[in-house]
Amino acid sequence: MRLDNRETIGFDALIIATGVAPRRLPDSDLAGVHVLRTLDDALHLRAALPTGPRVVVVGAGLLGTEVAAATRTMNLKVTVVEPEPVPVRRPFGDRIGALVGELHRDHGTRLRCGIPVRRLRGAAGRVTGADLGDGTTLPADVVVLALGSAPATRWLTGSGLRLGDGVECDALCQAAPGIYAAGDIASWHNQRFCTRMRLEHRMNATEQAMAAAGNLLGDAEPFAPVPYFWTDQYDTRIQAYGIFPPDADVRIVHGDPVDGYFAAAYGHHGRVVGVLGWNTPRRVRTSRRLVAERASWTALTDTPALRSATVN
Ligand SMILES: Cc1cc2nc3c(=O)[nH]c(=O)nc-3n(C[C@H](O)[C@H](O)[C@H](O)COP(=O)(O)OP(=O)(O)OC[C@H]3O[C@@H](n4cnc5c(N)ncnc54)[C@H](O)[C@@H]3O)c2cc1C
Question: What CA–CA distance (Å, rounded) separates 65 from 107?
């Protein structure tokens, strides 16, 4: 392996853990345009926010919505732009996405869903706004790009490893003999869910690193976790165990969205594949076993469906 300074390092075994890099838009180098990945990014953004009251967040995934919530609590005027019809659609699906949208609107954050940002506008090297797909322009003093990330695989081009959505590995997190990957960059086959996945969650990075190291040392243990992540938005904590396919059946197993707390289960191909808690940490933790055991969905089909009508 060769470093930038031309030094060469030999290895008997290798773990690749170079993570991801944030996606950007053309004109991202205008002053006032931020991404959020490193501590420096966070410090720059914090210093910039008080300089202008109009904040545009591009992208309503987990990061974009968390930035919007944090920024709104600073009493700034925040607009989130997202091409999907609801926020956090990719991690949670339409119905929870609609609830998260409602939460943001209740706190005074403006959502422009179903519309992409076409380009950023600037004057004298500083951002002044964002042109949207519907022909309108949103004025902005600060723009935060939360467009997702791309696996940092460029340095592996020509290495002979399979690079798809990340470094492609088998169930043991092995990409090639003696070469393993872990964390945000690793795409591996999770046998528990019979599917390939790549996760960008801190807990996964830690657990997968330990699994990859163990396998490198001869454990030969498939890495088959129940994925876990959480997001804090205003005073709401959403915790999620498992996977959340867009075509899953979603049912309420505890509480009620109108009361501000509930747990929902996601059913797919006859099995419980995910549980999500909305301000119910204890309940969702105990429901995790339904996912771990791949419980039959049949027992839950008489629980109320999380209907779109409930959330719109
Ligand atoms: C703002 C933000 C908030 C987040 N919040 C949460 C949260 O609430 N909960 C949660 O579960 N997860 C959260 N995450 C995700 C979590 O941080 C990541 O899943 C985790 O950091 C992944 O760890 P990693 O080691 O795979 O990658 P990283 O932590 O990204 O580390 C990769 C390292 O590799 C280095 N690198 C890249 N290319 C090269 C190269 N060619 N040579 C050498 N080194 C290289 C990078 O500089 C970096 O230091 C958040 C992420 C961000 C950006």
Answer: 12
**Section 24-46 average pLDDT:** 95
CA of 19 to the centre of ligand 1 (A): 5
Which ligand 1 atom is at minimum distance from the Cα of 18?
34
Q: What is the DSSP letter of 304?
A: P
Q: HSE-up of 214 (CA within 13 Å, CB side)?
A: 12
Give ligand 1 pocket residues (Cβ under 6 A): 17-19, 36-37, 63, 152, 155, 183-185, 200-203, 205, 229
Q: How many CB atoms lie within 10 A of CB 44?
A: 14
Q: Give pLDDT, residue 310.
A: 40
Q: Which domains does the chain have, with CATH numbers?
A: 14-18+150-216 (3.50.50.60), 25-146 (3.50.50.60), 228-311 (3.30.390.30)
Whether the CB-CB separation of 233 and 202 falls below 8 Å is answered with no
Alpha helical stretches, state H, 50-170: 62-72, 89-92, 94-106
Nearest alpha carbon, ligand 1 atom 27: 19
Centroid of ligand 1 to alpha carbon of 184 (angstroms): 7
Q: How confident is the model at residue 8 (pLDDT cuts 50, 70, 90)?
A: very high
* 215 touches 208 (CB < 8 A): no
The preferred substitution site among 39, 200, 230 for testing ligand 1, maximizing ligand atoms within 8 Å of CB, is: 200
Residue 307: what pLDDT?
Answer: 61
Residue nearest to atom 17 of ligand 1 (CA): 202
**pLDDT at residue 87 in the model:** 97
pTM of the entire predicted model = 0.91
